[in-house]
């Protein structure tokens, strides 16, 4: 049975359309197979690559479809121009769309100024990075909640990243003019030492009507304990000043109640339990549990990549076997972490 001549272009177009759709579908399935979602080895990298490759496969499929369609060169050129206009419009007008977030995600990856586990502050949001994707970045806040931020928001807002090598913790306090500033500085420096902070520094930040405002700084090397370090610094400021019989002043003392000469706003000395600090450490680890696990996974993945590179460059048979065992051990750890994460969902 012969096909009428007027149906031949239509059937060819349907066949080409079907073939293109099948190729796009096969490309997406192959991407999912080569970069599985929960493989544990390169989870964050695979999620980013998987989303990007799917977008490229779909765009390439549309371009190939237009090229192979049985139409005139004039119409084909018009279709390609239309596709270019659509893509241009999506990029130009998609400030709140997934296209802009995808472009922002690529930009963040190229800049690479933070990684999972880092403590970041963006606008009114602060926490440790627990996940990075093509369209969004997830942070775990001090309430242990998860906040998803569009990548476009991270590009448009200043991002503060606490350096892994350490950061300065600071606090402000107001003391009366009757307290010599040399004494105040000495006591505040003592507070930084009690809070296990290094490189203590005190400066006078302002001369107020009712008091002198001091700001004390201390260098924290373990940046995973930022929240706890801030609290400990303020706690030790209170303890040191009260032990020295130095009163912390504020306008509310003048405007709300009258203080007699013998009255002081200093509580009785309380001895802190020696078991308080370990308990506080464990509580802060619980706050940022997902971010901590993400950081550990990233560290294991980086170590595995280093061993693979060393294995490729190594010619010693015994050392190669040891490297292979270490790589297999890291793979098992990463797979176990991926399984645990999947169960927690």
Short description:
The chain has 345 residues and is an alpha+beta fold. It is built from 11 helices and 8 strands.
Describe the structure.
This protein is α+β, with helices and mostly antiparallel strands and 345 residues long. It folds into 4 domains: 8-93; 111-161, Roll (SH3 type barrels), CATH 2.30.30.60; 167-272, Alpha-Beta Plaits (2-Layer Sandwich); 285-344. It has helices at residues 8-34, 43-68, 73-93, 98-111, 151-156, 181-194, 226-243, 251-256, 276-287, 289-313, 317-344; strands spanning 119-122, 125-132, 136-140, 146-150, 159-161, 167-175, 198-207, 212-220. The strands form 2 sheets. A 5-stranded antiparallel β-sheet has the order 4-3-2-1-5. It has a 3-stranded antiparallel β-sheet with strand order 6-8-7, covered by helices on one side. Strand 3 and strand 4 form a beta hairpin. Helix 1 (8-34) packs antiparallel against helix 2 (43-68) and helix 10 (289-313) runs antiparallel to helix 11 (317-344). The two termini are 58 Å apart.
């Amino acid at each position: 049975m012969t096909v009428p001549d007027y149906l031949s272009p239509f059937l060819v177009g349907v066949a080409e359309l079907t073939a293109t759709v099948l190729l796009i579908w096969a490309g997406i399935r192959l991407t999912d197979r080569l970069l599985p979602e929960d493989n544990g080895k390169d989870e964050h990298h695979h999620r980013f690559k998987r989303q990007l490759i799917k977008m490229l496969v779909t765009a390439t499929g549309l371009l190939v479809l237009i090229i192979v369609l049985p139409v005139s060169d004039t119409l084909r050129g018009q279709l390609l121009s239309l596709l270019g206009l659509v893509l241009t419009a999506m990029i130009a007008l998609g400030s709140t769309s997934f296209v802009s977030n995808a472009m922002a995600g690529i930009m963040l990856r190229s800049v690479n100024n933070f990684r999972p586990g880092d403590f970041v502050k963006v606008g009114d949001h602060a926490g440790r990075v627990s996940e990075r994707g093509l369209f969004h970045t997830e942070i775990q806040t001090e309430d242990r909640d998860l906040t998803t931020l569009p990548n476009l928001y991270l590009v448009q807002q200043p991002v503060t990243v606490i350096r892994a090598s350490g950061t300065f913790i600071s606090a402000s306090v107001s003391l009366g003019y009757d307290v010599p500033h040399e004494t105040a500085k000495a006591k505040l420096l003592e507070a930084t030492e009690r809070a296990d902070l290094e490189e203590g520094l005190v400066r006078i930040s302002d001369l107020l009507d009712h008091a002198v405002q001091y700001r004390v700084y201390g260098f924290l090397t373990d940046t995973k304990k930022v929240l706890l370090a801030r609290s400990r610094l303020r706690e030790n400021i209170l303890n040191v000043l009260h032990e020295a019989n130095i009163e912390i002043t504020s306008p509310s003392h003048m405007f709300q109640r009258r203080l007699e000469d013998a009255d002081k706003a200093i509580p009785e000395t309380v001895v802190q339990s020696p078991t308080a600090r370990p308990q506080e450490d464990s509580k802060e680890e619980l706050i940022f549990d997902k971010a901590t696990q993400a950081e550990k996974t990233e560290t294991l993945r980086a170590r595995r990549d280093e061993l693979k590179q060393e294995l490729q460059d190594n010619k010693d048979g015994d050392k190669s076997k040891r490297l292979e065992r270490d790589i297999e051990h890291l793979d098992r750890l990463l797979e176990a972490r991926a399984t645990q994460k999947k169960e927690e969902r």
